[in-house]
Design a protein that fits this description.
The protein is mainly alpha-helical and 79 residues long. It starts with a strand and ends with a helix.
Length: 79
Amino acid sequence: MILRGGSTIGPNYSAPFIKETKEMLVKKKLPPKIMVDCSHGNSNKDHNNQPVVAADLVRLIYLYLYIYIYIYATTKGSD
């Protein structure tokens, strides 16, 4: 699934959009593979906004990885 944004919904690369998309794919028994397009509607069709979108995605991925590692590290010995 490619998230490109759009004229009616605007950018759709935030965490809630990604979560909703993943849940929809899983519900339909499809692989939860999601790609975010940093241009088109996600950058309001302005190439100058593409680095902003990419930086937001990097922060989001970093946050998810940090949370995952923290949860793994704090629950590893609880088995």
